[in-house]
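Task card 7
Instruction: Convert sequence to structure tokens.
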Amino acid sequence: MKAVADELLSSLMGDMRDAAETEILPRFRAITADAIRAKTSADDIVTDADIAAERVLSQRLAERLPGIAIVGEEAVSEDASIISRLADADLAAVIDPVDGTWHFAHGVPLFGSILAIVSGGETIAGLIHYPILGDFLIARRGEGAWHVAGDGRRTRLAVAAPRPIEEMHGFIPLHMFEPDLQAKLAPRVLRFLRTTTWRCSAFEYRMLATGAMSFCLNESLKPWDHAAGVLIHSEAGGYAAVVDGETYRPTMIEGHLLSAPDKRSWLAIQGALSGG
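Output:
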């Protein structure tokens, strides 16, 4: 497994800022109807900002790390076979150029850009940039998770303290699950203090890694949504696994991911959601 040096991490942050300043922010609240297109459904959309920002980041990564495999959300949307590069590559980058595209397209400032560096099937660095706020969450394996303010100041992140499930706040996108599972989950979520969904992994992982929210149950395992966030959450002290107990890997594409403050909390939440 490789390591990401300080200089490279700083360069990647700079590349994400540049992509935001040149391709994302100029289009925010300036989106026209012809710049929004549906992908898998009317609710799953892509904009010119997604495509342009992914192109910029892909070019920068190829220049900085020749030979790196690049797995971008929009590239995979056009060619599903690209996702297989994650399992085969010695070094890969996973890009979500605009996470929270629905918000972005409708003028809501709840979106971010996500970048994960994967080596040997494991995420070794995760970066989430928040263009409106001008800050980052970052992590490297074994080195903790950090908030990096716009002026460069760094603050170490820590997940929420464990507590009884009836005192927990969490994210559960109930509407995204299959109807049979929705029907089972709907009464069970009432066991928690509050559940919601923000339709934006970048901000949901921010809330988890800063301790503002306790847990998250995800409907899908798209690597651009989770590879960086799971590392950041883990380095902030959290625990995440697929609901059957299997350790999460960025090469996974099926299953439901559950993130919690620690393993004991994870087991309690998993039990409550499974009807135990």
